[in-house]
Amino acid sequence: MKLRPIAAVALRQIYLMRSSPVRILPMVAWVAVDIVLWGFIARYLNGVNSRGINFTASLLGAVLFWDFFTRVMQGVTMAFFEDIWSRNFVNVFSSPLRISEYLCGLVLTGVATSAIGLLAMLAIASTVFGLKIASLGLLLLPFLMVLFLFGIALGVLASAMVLRLGPASEWLVWPIPAMLSPFAGVFYPLATLPGWMRAIGHALPPSYVFEAMRSVVSGGIADPGQLAAGVGLALLDVLLACWLFVTVYRYAVRSGLLARYSAESVS
């Protein structure tokens, strides 16, 4: 695996954004709306709260982390979709580019786009609502690592799904974060969920991040073992997602699906 082809995949996305600034707007606009909306909700709850719970830290912090995860996932899938929409997919893989280099290029693009969204969220949350995310200290690193790795895993998984089922299936990708959020305990402890939902939640790496965050915000400490479990699960998910993408790609090449790839292909 060589660095130059990986950089070429990422550079193509940079050229696309440079030639079309409209592509940059969603990186900031939607996260800004989320932060502002939930920030005012949290401020209202702080005003009517009589138990001294800091809703700004718990709710707004949860929104920030979950949006970061979503941006990582969408950064990977959007880079993949650009090749689909421009009918460039076959051209890319007719070059000497390796599948591992292509995946690394998608991940590099996801890193860049999610970093832009994270900086925008931090700027708004800290200046408008006084959220001190730095108060988490060194815990911020494993929190972001778990969310980043899981976002990469889901982005690669979603790309594999679209590669196998066809471009029309991209509409199955967008609801994935919303469908996972009830199980991940983004805004409430997993203990409030029924048993079967709690079991699914424990299999999702982000649940360990939000449980630890609520513990720290309420004055407790984060369980290092739980965070280590979250990191381990996230790494496992990345490996499984990459394996699945490579398997689907090989099937697409072997069956001729790659050559027939078009907006109408759904099987």
Walk me through what this model shows.
With 267 residues, the chain is an all-alpha fold. The protein has one domain. The chain has ten helices and no strands. Helix 2 runs antiparallel to helix 3 (55-85), helix 3 (55-85) packs antiparallel against helix 9 and helix 6 (140-165) runs antiparallel to helix 9.
Q: What is the averaged pLDDT score?
A: 78
Q: How big a fraction of the residues is strand?
A: under 5%
What is the number of domains? 1
Biggest sheet architecture: none
The outline comes out as globular
Radius of gyration: 20 Å
Low-confidence stretches: 262-267
Topology summary:
Layout: H1 3-19, H2 25-48, H3 55-85, H4 89-93, H5 99-129, H6 140-165, H7 176-184, H8 195-202, H9 205-217, H10 224-255
Helix pairs in contact: 1-5, 2-3, 2-5, 3-5, 3-6, 3-9, 6-9, 6-10, 9-10
